[in-house]
Write the structure tokens for this entry.
Amino acid sequence: MSKENWLRCGLDLLYFTGLARAFSPIFRGMGAIIMLHHVRHAGGLRRGFAPNSELEVTPGFLHATIEHVKTQGYDLISLEEAVSRLKSGASSRRPFIVFTIDDAYRDILIHALPIFRRHNCPFTIFAAPAITDGSCELWWIGLEAIIAGSSRLSLTLEDQQIDLATITDAQKRAAWEVLYRPFRRLDEYSQRNLIRSLCAERGISLNAICRAEAMDWNELRTIAKDPLCTIGAHTVHHYALAKLPPSEAIEEVVASASRIEQEVGRRPRYFAYPYGDSLSAAQRDFEIVERAGMEAAVTTRKGLIFPAHKDHLCALPRVSLNGHYQQLRYLDVFLSGTAFAVWNGFRRFKTA
């Protein structure tokens, strides 16, 4: 059984036994910051080899999610308002939902913006200037393209010679499992050099991939004018801060904010860590982002928002709208906080 199927079984257990509902008053906290990447038709529903489909949801599921949380009594608020509530310590009987989107892909402008407008729902987009320029190596998409287009794949990775058959979908999925984590472990420059080399050998243009996926600056300026939209920073090159020396890490934060201010006209006050897990952003990086002048920053650590997060504003957790879990019952379990409590060792929140 796949990891996704095991997790679905666990979520179904929490939902159908009523445990999630029973423990929600303990673990729900003040609310949730939702994380999105792509909103597109058939998002997360592609068959065959589609390893990045977890980063996609359908417009229908986004609409259903917003409708559902509204009927459940959640306030739809901006990230600014959520931070304000945390800072003030103001308690409210109504929990909140904040929508955030990483990377500023074009499908957000096309498919998500009309849904947010329909519901008068605020949202924050975290932009990385190199992605918006169309010059960033979206290596995870490049790796998918390499495996999808090959019948056999040979390369040296982490000083190991790897030779993989990649004919069937099952073989391609197995190859992804072999390669993805080692790619993530590489330092940022080795990782980008390797993916550029592998793509060049196969006639795959990383620039073309990036330009096709991402909003350009005119499109970002267009969506930024919407009063529901806040633009945040996401480094310049979508680098994991934890893999950079301190001077380079702070330059990635400051330069991204400065470029966005130059292009959009407002300096970002909020930040999202690329990748955002414990290997990509740690305590040193939380402090760097705070020193760089950000009021708050979001990770990809799984969890809900609690009053104690007022002392950890640059390490806020999020709830991913994952393409593999597009069922409202799973959303209910996530928003109950029960699953995250289990994953976090029954701590109500976890920053380290």
About this structure: The mean pLDDT is 94. Residues 138 and 209 are 8 Å apart (CA to CA).
